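Sample entry copied in:
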Amino acid sequence: MSKKEISKEFARLRDFGFDVWNYNEKKPLRRAQSGFVDHHLMSYNYDVYIEVKLPGDKYRDRQEDLAKKISHLSTTNKAIHYRLVRSLADAKRLVDLLLERKL
C-alpha cells in the first residue's frame, strides 16, 4: 500500500462530481503549504479534509493544530469533516461513505 494508491482512490470521486485536491509535498506549491492536509475533497454536500498517516508517519505540530481547528468547525457545520486515513482500506471506506451520502 502506498500514498499514491490512496490518492488514486480519492481521485475516483471526480467521476461523481467531487472536486479533489492532492497536496503532494514534491510539488513546489505544496512546500509553501506545509502543515496543510494531504487531500481536500469537496462536493455540494461535503467539505472533507484528509490527512494520510501510514505506519511510521507522525503528525507535525501544525498538522495537529489544523486537525483540531477543522474538527472544531465540524461541531457547528455538519458538512465539514476531518478524517485521518491510515490505509487503503480506510480510504475505500471513506469513498463509499461519501458516495452513499452517509458521512
